[in-house]
């Protein structure tokens, strides 16, 4: 067989040619993790605890607008962290308004500086990126800022931003490459539109913004942009928050509408053109109705696409090693031990088929997987009853079944829904809405009225939901809930 | 051109010096004052300094290394001192890349690997 040698200090690295697999005496690493996000880093750090030789490859392909970021993955750089901070910025704006009713006096108009906020947020993210680098180095995990792809069953090619390629071998692999925002595939989308990948580091205030999409990303972004005082419109193709309890989704939409977010329902953009260059410039969006032939046009400073995210699994050489992916979605099917169809290749995080796309889920799955691989553990990741929160202006926390899914699974006659509106005490004095906050639980009548779904719409929904998630995991029943005395005066007592 | 070292004492001198080198990569090591015999009141600083100095040859060209004595122990313990307030320092020794969130604090400064990483990577 002919073997090509790399001109480096490592003559034992060879590329597979003529279909012959060279069997190395030992691999470079016990484990190579492709992707330095929530799942990947958790797995790598855990493996290092068991004295395994681990490498993490992380690389961010810049967005069409040129945005990029450091180690840590989506959550840290362009997801949960900056999102929650900007949501907080918007909440503080509201709090400033409320504060006058509580006696605070200030004469100046309160204004918001996008640049000040973004700089602070990016600074914090930078410290997290650095913290991860220190943590990896300290635990002797090798980190390379390089794009990893399979070239052989146990071999990865890593290409850094200068185009330099290196080969590494490992006994096992974890794919944790995550996802990136989807584009519409219409004229002008990549040239003129931004995505969440660009928003949190945008070096200028986005101005009048059109958000395309009805995902939680779309609604959360639209929510805080409006909260910061910007003119925001959301263009929705059909329903809000697909996959979430629709009763709650509609309440969220109503609240946003009443608080200054414009909605254009049942339209999709077909073209984006630039009217004027600038930071921001002016863009013209042409959209077509999904229900007929009606065409509308609008001008905005910024168009933010939030129509979904696609897994980064198509260009990492999975075909070369025979790892199956869902051709349509790009997701990777795994068994309940996060193992792909190739025994020594595993996957965690957003790329998994049929699993929740959440940071804590990826972290838990990554850690437990590594403990099973190297520490003899047997615990598998529990994907049931995972709590989540959507940080729209009126926050929504949920754990367990939506009402629709519960009806589908157990039958309308076997479930009981208990619900209540509530008025947070803090909202009374500033005369904020008295009929918007809402909570409901869904119980399984046939199983002792076990609580199988928990939904709350109100301030601090995430904080409220976390405790209930633990209770649900313990098998909370309606009776137990009733007999738990409430804390007063808090929203959670409802 | 290589790198150069500046030795300063106290916050105003540090700021003046850092500003005068605006545009070049600036790394700074903050330590407790030294007595007449050259010993610092800060034992971790005593440990860290030789480790850091050994890695200085890794500094990128054009860099400036500012060795800054912060003050005596009483000054440092004051939670409102200028280094804590303005530079957000939480402990000595601190080794940082000025103008970025990249820094090493206390025992992190003992590790040559980490010091080298701070000096050499983006």
From TrEMBL, chain A:
This entry's Gene Ontology molecular function terms read:
flavin adenine dinucleotide binding; glutathione-disulfide reductase (NADPH) activity; NADPH peroxidase activity; thioredoxin-disulfide reductase (NADPH) activity
In the record, biological process GO terms are: cell redox homeostasis; cellular response to oxidative stress; glutathione metabolic process
* Listed Basic and acidic residues bias regions: 1-15
- EC number per UniProt: 1.11.1.2, 1.8.1.9
Task: Give the positions the UniProt entry annotates as the active site.
Answer: 488 (proton acceptor)
Q: Which residues bind NAD(+)?
A: 213-220, 308
Q: Which is a Pfam family this sequence falls into?
A: Pyr_redox_2
Q: Which residues form the Pyridine nucleotide-disulphide oxidoreductase dimerisation domain?
A: 386-493
Q: Which cofactor does it need?
A: FAD
What gene makes this protein? Txnrd1
Binding-site positions, FAD: 84, 148, 350
> What this chain does, per the record?
Reduces disulfideprotein thioredoxin (Trx) to its dithiol-containing form. Homodimeric flavoprotein involved in the regulation of cellular redox reactions, growth and differentiation. Contains a selenocysteine residue at the C-terminal active site that is essential for catalysis. Also has reductase activity on hydrogen peroxide (H2O2).
The source's superkingdom equals: Eukaryota
Looking up PANTHER family in the UniProt record yields:
GLUTATHIONE REDUCTASE, THIOREDOXIN-DISULFIDE REDUCTASE
What protein name is recorded for this chain? Thioredoxin reductase 1, cytoplasmic
What family is it from? Belongs to the class-I pyridine nucleotide-disulfide oxidoreductase family.
| S-S pairs | 75-80
Broad class of enzyme this protein falls into: oxidoreductase
Alphabetically sorted, this entry's keywords are: Disulfide bond, FAD, Flavoprotein, NAD, NADP, Nucleotide-binding, Oxidoreductase, Redox-active center, Selenocysteine
* Reactions catalysed: [thioredoxin]-dithiol + NADP(+) = [thioredoxin]-disulfide + NADPH + H(+); H2O2 + NADPH + H(+) = NADP(+) + 2 H2O
What is a single cellular component term in the Gene Ontology annotation?
A: cytosol
Which residue stretches belong to region Disordered? 1-20
Biological source species: Gymnorhina tibicen (Australian magpie)
Residue ranges of domain FAD/NAD(P)-binding in the record: 29-366
- Describe cofactor binding as the record notes it: Binds 1 FAD per subunit.
From TrEMBL, chain B:
Q: Does Aminoacyl-tRNA synthetase appear among the keywords?
A: no
GO MF annotation list = protein-disulfide reductase [NAD(P)H] activity
Mind telling me which InterPro entries this protein's record contains? Thioredoxin-like_sf, TXNDC17-like, TXNDC17_dom
Among CDD domains, the record links this protein to: TRP14_like
Thioredoxin domain segment(s): 8-121
UniProt-annotated location(s): Cytoplasm
Q: Does the keyword Cytoplasm apply?
A: yes
- Highest taxon, organism lineage: Eukaryota
Query: Can you quote a single GO CC term?
Result: cytosol
Report the main location listed first in the record: cytoplasm
Question: Which key words are in the record?
Answer: Cytoplasm, Disulfide bond, Redox-active center
PANTHER family per UniProt: 42-9-9 PROTEIN-RELATED, THIOREDOXIN DOMAIN-CONTAINING PROTEIN 17
State the similarity comment.
Belongs to the thioredoxin family.
Q: What is this protein called?
A: Thioredoxin domain-containing protein 17
Species this protein is from: Rhagologus leucostigma
> Lineage of the source organism?
Eukaryota, Metazoa, Chordata, Craniata, Vertebrata
């Amino acid at each position: 067989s002919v073997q090509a040698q790399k001109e480096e200090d490592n003559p034992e690295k060879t590329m597979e040619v003529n279909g012959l697999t060279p069997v190395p005496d030992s691999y470079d690493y016990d484990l190579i993790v492709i992707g330095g996000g929530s799942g990947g880093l958790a797995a790598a750090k855990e493996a290092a605890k068991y004295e395994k030789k681990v490498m993490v490859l992380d690389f961010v392909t810049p967005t069409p607008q040129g945005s990029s970021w450091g180690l840590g993955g989506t959550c840290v750089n362009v997801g949960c962290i900056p999102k929650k901070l900007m949501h907080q910025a918007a909440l503080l704006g509201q709090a400033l308004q409320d504060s006058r009713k509580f006696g605070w006096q200030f004469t100046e108009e309160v204004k918001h500086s996008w640049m000040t906020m973004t700089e602070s947020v990016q600074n914090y993210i930078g410290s997290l990126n650095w913290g991860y680098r220190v943590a990896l180095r300290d635990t002797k995990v090798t980190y390379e800022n390089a794009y990893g792809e399979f070239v052989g069953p146990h071999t990865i090619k890593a290409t850094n931003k200068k185009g330099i390629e290196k080969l590494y071998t490992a006994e096992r692999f974890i794919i944790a490459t995550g996802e990136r925002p989807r584009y519409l595939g219409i004229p002008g989308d990549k040239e003129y539109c931004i995505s969440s990948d660009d928003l949190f580091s945008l070096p200028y205030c986005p101005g009048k913004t059109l958000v395309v999409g009805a995902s939680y990303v779309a609604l959360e972004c639209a929510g805080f942009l409006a909260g910061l005082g910007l003119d925001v419109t959301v263009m929705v193709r059909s329903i809000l928050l697909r996959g979430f309890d629709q009763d709650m989704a509609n309440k969220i939409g109503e609240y946003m509408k009443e608080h200054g977010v414009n909605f254009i329902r049942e339209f999709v953009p077909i073209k984006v053109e630039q009217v004027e260059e600038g930071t921001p410039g002016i863009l013209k969006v042409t959209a077509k109705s999904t229900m007929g032939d009606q065409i509308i046009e609008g001008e905005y400073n910024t168009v933010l696409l939030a129509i979904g995210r696609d897994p980064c699994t198509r260009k990492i050489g999975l075909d070369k090693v025979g790892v199956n992916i869902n051709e349509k979605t790009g997701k990777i099917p795994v068994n309940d031990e996060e193992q792909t169809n190739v025994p020594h290749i595993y996957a965690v995080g957003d790329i998994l088929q049929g699993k929740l796309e959440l940071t804590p889920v990826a972290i838990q799955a990554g850690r437990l997987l590594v403990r099973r691989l190297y520490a003899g553990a047997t615990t598998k990741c529990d994907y049931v009853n995972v709590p989540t929160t959507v940080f729209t202006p009126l926050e929504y926390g949920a754990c367990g079944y939506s009402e629709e899914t519960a009806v589908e699974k157990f039958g309308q006659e076997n479930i009981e829904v208990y619900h209540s509106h509530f008025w947070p005490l803090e909202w009374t004095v500033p005369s904020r809405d008295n009929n918007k906050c809402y909570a409901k639980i869904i119980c399984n009548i046939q199983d002792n009225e076990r609580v199988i779904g928990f939904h709350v719409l109100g301030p601090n929904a995430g904080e409220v939901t976390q405790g209930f998630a633990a209770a649900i995991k313990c098998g909370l029943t309606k009776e137990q809930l009733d007999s738990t005395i409430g804390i007063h005066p808090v929203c959670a007592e409802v | 051109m290589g790198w150069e070292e500046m030795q300063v004492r106290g916050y105003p001198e540090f700021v003046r010096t850092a500003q005068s080198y605006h545009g070049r990569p600036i790394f700074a090591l903050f330590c407790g004052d030294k007595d007449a015999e050259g010993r610092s009141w800060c034992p971790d600083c005593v440990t860290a300094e030789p480790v850091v100095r050994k890695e200085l040859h890794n500094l990128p060209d054009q860099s400036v290394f500012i060795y800054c004595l912060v003050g005596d122990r009483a000054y440092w313990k004051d939670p409102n001192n200028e280094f804590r307030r303005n530079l957000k320092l939480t402990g000595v020794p601190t080794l940082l890349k000025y103008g970025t969130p990249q820094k090493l604090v206390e025992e992190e400064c003992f590790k040559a690997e980490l010091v080298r990483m701070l000096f050499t990577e983006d």
